[in-house]
Structure formats: C-alpha cells, structure tokens
Amino acid sequence: MLFGVSGNARFFLYSSSTDMRKGFNGLSGLVINKLGQDPLSGDIFIFINRARNLVKILVWDQTGFAIWHKRLEQGTFEMPKIEKSQASLEISRQKLMLILEGISLKNIQTRKRFSLEKKC
C-alpha cells in the first residue's frame, strides 16, 4: 500500500472531517496547525471526509510528500472512537488496513504479541 514507509512510522488519524480538495500544502497545514505535528517526520497522517467515502494519506518519504487517495464506490470508512477533545488518534498500521478494507473495528480481537514498548 504505502511504499517507503519505515517500521518506525506512526499513524495519526485526524479526528475532524477534511475537505478533500486539499493537496500537499493544505494537508501539511492541518498537520502543523491542528495536530501540532511535523509533517516532515516520516509519520503517516490520515484524513477522511465528512461522508466517510474518501480518504487521503499524507507521508513525507525523505525526498518529498506523497499522497495516497482512495474513493469508495459503495459504503463508508469506519472511524474508531475519538474523544471530541482530541485532534487526532494514533492508530496501528493494522487498524489502518482494517479501516481501508472495510472490516468492522467493533469485534476485532488481537492476540498477544511481543512489543518493545515498555509496560506501565
């Protein structure tokens, strides 16, 4: 799906609906001004429109920005629960793939896997 994405990249789903007329500059502006993030970080930023049938994914690949764009011909993208106070939600690559493939997030159960993240 996304070429050149490093294993360290984080995925941020923008919580508000997005005007899909926005291009590289407009989406980068949302990342900076609304998410408080650096669009040049190599992280992946996901934007969905109000009707939830269009998605744009913005990524910096060390030489320039790339936008991946998908339009559904039928149905909608499912949005995970996001608190109204949150500008974005960090999601896993797996969850992004489920959203893009139209798999319901409500009943997904993940099996235990090793992670380098420290347990609190």
How would you portray this structure in words?
- This protein has 120 residues and is an alpha+beta fold.
- It has one domain (11-101).
- Helix content is 16%, strand content 22%.
- The protein has two helices and five strands.
- It has a five-stranded mixed sheet with strand order 4-3-2-1-5.
- A hairpin with a 5-residue loop joins strand 2 (44-48) and strand 3 (54-60).
- The protein starts with 10 loop residues before the first strand and ends in a 19-residue tail after the last helix.
- The model has no long low-confidence stretch (mean pLDDT 89).
What would a concise description of this structure say?
This protein is an alpha+beta fold.
Helix-and-strand structural type: alpha+beta
- Walk across the major sheet and give the strand order: 4-3-2-1-5
- Spans where pLDDT lies below 50 across 5 or more residues: none
**Number of helical runs?**
2
Averaged pLDDT, please?
A: 89
Tell the overall outline. globular
> Which bin fits the share of residues in helices?
10-25%
Query: Could you state the order of secondary-structure elements as H and E?
Result: EHEEEEH
Number of domains: 1
- Spatial separation of the terminal alpha carbons: 33 Å
Query: C-alpha Rg, in Å?
Result: 14 Å
The count of strands amounts to 5
Strand portion: 15-25%
Sheet with the most strands? Answer: 5 strands, mixed
